Each structure stands twice: as structure tokens, then as C-alpha cells.
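Case study 2.
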Amino acid sequence: MKKTLLLNSVLSELIASLGHGDMVVIGDAGLPIPPETRRIDLALCRGIPPLLETVRVIASEMQVEKALIATETGQRSPHIRDGLGQLLPNTPFEEVSHEQLKALCRQARAVVRTGEYTPYANVILVAGVVF
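Prediction:
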């Protein structure tokens, strides 16, 4: 049995396979996921699991070089933006429009769907390297 925080085997495999610059999207329950993009659906019901908790666990094993969020996140859901900043304190953030974020989902290695019901509660984590 694994000793680290992340127990989900699908997420563990995804993180282990990431290369420098690969993107993983962690999204709210309503984020549209392109059919060609791998979907890892963790949503159980409204609010479970929450986005920030999901980011916390994924970031515990993933080397994150930068994070992208929608400009609308800070405007409509500042507590999500603030929470992401606390979880990823040494990570640079870039803001893009919500439409650009949705378009970037097509280039992501996977979209992780959470049960989050907060508007614009989505983040793209860009993989870094540990050396």
C-alpha cells in the first residue's frame, strides 16, 4: 500500500507519466471537457471532493512549474484564487480568459473533474521538473 498522500491509482499513474510542460486541469463540476481529452471524474456529489482539497493532494506529488487560472476566478470566486495561492505559494500564476482556459483543456493530458460547485473554480497545473 502507498505511504504517500495520494491513493488514487489513476491520478498516481497520470502524475508519474507527466513530462515537463504537460498540463493537468482540475475543474469544477460544470467545466466542459472535450471528448478527446482524458477525463478523470472524481465527482461524487455537490461539493465532494472540493477543488482546493483535490489540488492539495495532487500538488503533494506533482512538481508544478506554474498554474493558470481564469481572470474571472479572481473576480467571481476570490476565495478560490486565494486558496490556490496558499496551496501553491511558490508557484507563479498566469491569468487567461475563461474561454482560453476551456480551449487549453484540449491540450491537457487530463481533466480532473471535482464536485466543486463554485463558479470559475478551475486551474491548470503545468508540470515542472525536479532537477
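The radius of gyration is 13 Å.
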